[in-house]
Specification:
The protein is mostly helical. It is built from 18 helices and no strands. The chain has helices at residues 3-19, 25-32, 37-64, 68-85, 92-123, 128-152, 160-176, 193-196, 208-224, 226-237, 248-251, 253-257, 259-278, 280-300, 307-335, 341-371, 381-402, 409-416. The longest helix has 32 residues, at 92-123. The chain is globular and about 65 Å long.
Length: 417
Amino acid sequence: MSLKLRLIIMNFLQFFIWGAWLITVGSFWFQNKSWSGAEFGAIFSTMGIASLFMPAISGIIADRWINAEKLLGIFHLFGAAMLFYLPNVDSPTAFFWVMMLNMIFYMPTISLSITVAYSSLNKANMDIVTKYPPIRVYGTIGFIVAMWTVSLLKIETSAAQFYVASAASVLLGLYAFTLPKCDVNPNPQSKSFIDVLGLNAFKLFKNSKMAMFFIFSMLLGASLQLTNMYGDTFLHDFAKIPEYKDLLVIEYPAIVMSISQISETLFILAIPFFLKRFGIKKVMLISMIAWVLRFALFGIGNPAEGLVLIIASNIIYGMAFDFFNISGSLFVESQTDSSIRASAQGLFMMMTNGFGAIFGSWASGMLIDEYFTSAQGHLMWEEIWFTFAAYSLVIAVAFALVFKHEHKPEELDKIKQ
């Protein structure tokens, strides 16, 4: 089996595991449990909490003691056990802690899988820049296939989705031990604990422009998981309305939601044109406006005559998600010194997927419980989506007015070098 195919299988399974439950766990929660929205928000915050410290810790372990491919396998096997146990949990508190353990094991495997791929390609004397992206795209395909699998099996509201994810995690856990060896460093360079964890990048907050950028990264990061949290549940709830309950969209909502991931793969190709034409700040602003449209179109859409609006919202997601994440990472790359560049990228991810995700998960859950749940216990979706849209609009306007950055084409040239 070729190295490329081996890495494709790894990436496919890596994101298949996530896709099997991430979009549909909300439907399982709200359709089967009488637990609150705030408690559900806490469940989604586990990704952010784990992202704050586990990737750095796993990196230290993989650098010094355990080969990355073995650590990848170990973490996936432990994660599989947590996913398998989740359906047996009978309280929101216990569900939170089991999910927390699952995310503690899963989140670092994203960076570990990248480490395995880079190390393997380097050892094979293959160009990472040209060879890795076509391999990585199979991760997105794996996520989409998982969503389709769960939807076509009609287990979106069932605990069976966790068993599917657990089985895939076991498979990847065992498969990881067959991947090319990633050497550890027996004599690591002596660094302070702050340097090892990448915390030295926090000195960038002394720069007002960088501080403003990271603050907006956190605020927008709060939006990133909202449709992952509630999108599938939103479509499922239309089944409670007689004129919608027999529509195919209601039977297979995860397939409709997978348009978002398909859109991601397409909008990535458009980023170079937009960056060259408009510059990094305007591309990030376009992303923020796209988030406004993403939520607003959900607010006015429905599975019948408004289906085109829901599909449009899912297509726009690719622009909303990719344009900020990629242009944001390029901004960090262009504005930081090479000595702390990796740490700065870690800080960017920490602000968006860590602090931002935690803030968005907890705040949305509490808001929904307090203001957007009817006396009968039904979620008020139109008000929910318009509130999310209004929040994103405020962020976009504030960013346009407050964040000062002049487009300089030579900055992009510097990144290419």
